[in-house]
Amino acid sequence: MEINFIANDVVYEVTVDNSYLIGFADNKNEPNEYVIIERALEFDEQDIKLGMDSYYFEYSDQSNSGYGLCSKVILRQSGIVFSIKHKRMDDITSIIVSYKEHIIEDIKEYRKTLSNIFADILVIE
Q1: pLDDT for 68 beyond 90
Q2: Most buried pick, 7, 13, 29, 94, via CB within 10 A?
């Protein structure tokens, strides 16, 4: 199953607790659909032991969440495609988030944050 939604709000930052954070939401104040991705700048021994030494990915609620769920992430001019690893999120195979280009205030910072989170699975088209 392929999920599609339009993000009217996109957030990308380094948080106060030292992690990269990117969020896409259909509505800033009361989102029905959203994607949140977070990755710590550093991982401690416990993170590594628990398999949490990757990025955290969540779609619309915690029942659709986990670590390292994407096989590939494709950044396009008007959106982003998250290819979900087989059977990691029920029947969801991909999540396509579209947005208007002007919603990204600093495209270089946005791309840098995506690269820091997804490293070797990010493709920029």
Answers
A1: yes
A2: 7
Q: Determine which helix (DSSP H) or strand (DSSP E) holds 93, and give its type and residue range.
A: none
To the nearest whole number, what is the mean pLDDT of the chain? Answer: 93
Q: Residue for token digits 């495609």? A: 81
Backbone dihedral angles phi then psi of residue 120, each to the nearest 5 degrees:
-85, 0
Does residue 89 register a pLDDT over 90?
A: no
Question: Are 39 and 19 a contacting pair, CB within 8 Å?
Answer: yes
- Per the CB < 8 A criterion, the answer to whether 57 and 71 are in contact is no
Tokens matching residue 88: 């990691």
Strand order across the beta sheet in which 9-14 lies: 9-14, 19-25, 34-40, 56-59, 61-67
Strand, coil or helix: 5: strand
Cα separation, 20 vs 76, in Å, equals 20
- Torsion from C-alpha of 23, 28, 30, 33, nearest 10 degrees: -40
- 9-14 vs 2-6, strand pairing mode: unpaired
